[in-house]
Amino acid sequence: MRLATLILVLAGALAFGGGDGKADTISAIQGHGWPNHFDGCFGSSWQIMVNNCSTTRLLVIPAQGQRPGYNSVLVSASGNGSSGSTAMTNCQGISSFVSSSGMFADDFTPIVSTSASSTFQGLNLGNLLLFPGSVMHFECFLAGSGGRVARIDFE
User: Where are the beta strands (DSSP E) in 6-155?
Assistant: First the structure.
C-alpha cells in the first residue's frame, strides 16, 4: 500500500509541474544599455524596454540560469513598424564562465531578427549550453524609434 501511494504521489507531482520542465522567464526591464549603462534612449513600461531614439541601440539583459543547459530560448520582441532592415530588432544569447584564469564564452545562440512589424513576435534562439557556474546574457539590438523587447523564456 505504501509503495502504491508513493507512486501515485510522484506521478501527480510530475503531471502537475513537479518536474524540471518549468520555464524560467526574465523581463526585459532587467536590461541596460551598452556601452552606456544608463542610456537615455531606453524607456520602460512594466516589463517592456523600448528604444525611443532614432538609431539602433544595444540592450544587454543579464540572466542566471536555474540549471545546466537549456533546450530552447524564446525572446518576445518587435520591430518599429516602418520599412527597411534598420526597422528590425535582433537578439542573441551568450553563456560564459568566469574562473581564476579569466572569463570564457561557453556558447552562443544564432542571431535572430524580427520583421519590421511593431507587433510582438517570438524569436526562437534555439539551444543555449549552460554549465554549472555559468552565467548568461542576451544582447538585443532594438530598432530605432520603437523597437521593443518584452521578455525572454528559457526552458
Answer: 24-27, 32-34, 42-45, 48-51, 57-63, 70-78, 90-99, 102-108, 112-113, 121-128, 135-142, 148-154
- Name the band, by pLDDT with cuts 50, 70 and 90, for residue 20: low
- Can you give the residue ranges of every domain in the chain? 22-154
Q: What is the DSSP letter of 13?
A: H
Question: Which residues are 84's β-sheet partners?
Answer: none
CB atoms within 10 A of CB 100: 4
Q: Mean pLDDT over all residues of the chain? A: 84
CATH number 1.10.150.20 is the correct assignment for the domain at 22-154: no
Residue carrying the nine cell digits 538585443: 140
Residue 14 scores a pLDDT above 50: no
pLDDT at residue 127, as a whole number:
92
**C-beta separation of 26 from 151 below 8 A:** yes
Phi, then psi, of 39 in degrees rounded to 5: -65, 120
